[in-house]
Write a sequence for this structure.
């Protein structure tokens, strides 16, 4: 039995498929090499960031010890970053604090967000103080929040940050291409803090383990609302 020759159309189709497969293989190889180079760059820069954090911590300790040795007190620099948590619902809240919490994207109880501290934001925090608690987060708190509860805003949608490409698509033009870059810009209140913070969806935290003490009293009076400075880190651990 004589096997018939392949039709010309089938031969063309096979040639096209082979050419396309070759192109795809080349582009895949290039993309893999590009990703490997980008990953190497991210690891290198992340290590540099952590060296900076360690150096800053060591400098704080040195200055504190030096002041103590000279019989003085060391006063650290004012905090530039705050983490704010909403404690109260919608009932019996005046219009002004309600509007401020809306501007901060604190729409529900246990919602949290990062705020850059300046004259305007401090005044807003003062007005809304009876309905919120806030403080100055450390690096560990910022990292845990973004890694565990972090979601990005992409085209108005809440998208899980499960890949660096999600961040790169939205913040690549600001040279924020990975989670660690994002953490660095938030923690240090970098030049692109506004864009980085706007990209982050507000944090939806759980109810605090062990409960709250008394939301109608200030923190310094044994209650919960108001400025709790570095004790906000303990609060976030219980809610994260």
């Amino acid at each position: 039995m004589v096997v018939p020759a392949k039709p010309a159309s089938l031969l063309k189709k096979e040639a096209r498929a082979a050419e396309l497969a070759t192109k795809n293989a080349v582009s895949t190889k290039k993309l893999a090499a590009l990703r490997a180079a980008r990953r190497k760059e991210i690891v290198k820069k992340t290590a540099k960031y952590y060296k900076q954090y360690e150096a800053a911590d060591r400098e704080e300790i040195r200055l504190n010890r030096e002041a103590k040795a000279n019989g003085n007190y060391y006063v650290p620099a004012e905090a530039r970053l705050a983490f704010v948590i909403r404690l109260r619902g919608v009932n019996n809240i005046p219009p002004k604090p309600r509007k401020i919490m809306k501007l901060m994207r604190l729409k529900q109880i246990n919602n949290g967000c990062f705020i850059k501290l300046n004259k305007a934001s401090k005044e807003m925090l003062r007005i809304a103080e009876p309905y919120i608690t806030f403080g100055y987060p450390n690096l560990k708190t910022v990292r845990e929040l973004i890694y565990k509860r972090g979601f990005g805003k992409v085209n108005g949608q809440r998208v899980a940050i499960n890949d660096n490409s999600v961040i790169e698509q939205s913040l690549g033009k600001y040279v924020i291409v990975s989670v660690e870059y994002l953490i660095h810009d938030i923690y240090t209140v970098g030049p692109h803090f506004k864009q980085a913070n706007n990209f982050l969806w507000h944090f939806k935290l759980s109810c605090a383990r062990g409960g709250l003490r008394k939301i109608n009293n200030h923190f310094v009076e044994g209650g919960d609302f108001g400025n709790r400075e570095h004790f906000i880190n303990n609060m976030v651990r219980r809610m994260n």
Remarks:
- The helical segments are 8-69, 95-103, 119-128, 139-149, 164-171, 179-187, 193-199, 232-239.
- The longest helix spans residues 8-69.
- The first strand starts at residue 81 and ends at 86.
